[in-house]
């Protein structure tokens, strides 16, 4: 969706459909059942939910562009985080509690972004332009923060002694949540104010700004953003029950729910990232991709931790041994890929194959 020009019809149609679907499903008490009607309901729910997430991200981008940095980036990040926390918390607290869902979702986001999305963008760009350039200084900042956040949230819980198993004690979880928030806040300040030039193309900066958004359109986007977020939160319960039922019906492992939530959250930014790579703007692709994974860990994990602590629910964060191997492999491959400032199709293919291994191991652990 473009943030310029007339508002696309889907930007208001899907939020309206989401509210209507919730009202109808709640009014008649309809939930997913393993039948033809249930499958139709699940397909409609997923399509409407995806469309509403797209609409929410579009309106957040519109408002973000108007208010400027750093508030624009923060607004967009908060909008996506609200959606993600609503989905994770609702599924975690459903009829079949899933204390490891936050871990599975965060891990899936890192694998999808750092391998699937990054690999696809690099591969597409390499096919069209042979090689593409980006700012090494900016990518190094992304990776340094991402590696630290992923390690302390997904690996370290397996080796602490205060609480048994792959979990943090209440004190440890609180400390780690504060650390992740501080680190993400400093990164956001660095990206949007202190060293903003690290994250833009060297050829950018002197292009004339397009027409500013009118106050009327800005107000409309703010209202539709709030409606879209409300619609996603309301549909989260229906989505949770549908995911639980489908997972049980097809015999999928519990980690499947985390992959579905991650794909739902990442799809709008993924479309934009691939489009930027096709336009020979790999720097923007990297910003969109790695920025999404940082926001997921830096904001979603503390938010889910607060929910789990408030409701006295266990939060499993530590990965199993194969997951840790894939995470470390992703770290190493990412350092090699982003270490030179130039990419080609082989780098992209390597990342996509690591992502394929991740997906295969989800269903065949």
UniProtKB/TrEMBL annotation:
GO terms for molecular function: potassium:proton antiporter activity; sodium:proton antiporter activity. The keyword rRNA processing does not apply. Its main location: membrane. Residues 40-192, 221-363 form the Sodium/calcium exchanger membrane region domain. It comes from the Bacteria. It is found in: Membrane. It is a multi-pass membrane protein. Keywords: Membrane, Transmembrane, Transmembrane helix. The keyword Nucleus does not apply. One of its GO terms (cellular component) is plasma membrane. The chain crosses the membrane at residues 35-59, 71-94, 106-129, 141-161, 167-189, 217-236, 256-276, 288-311, 317-338, 345-364. This is Ionic transporter y4hA. It comes from Bradyrhizobium archetypum.
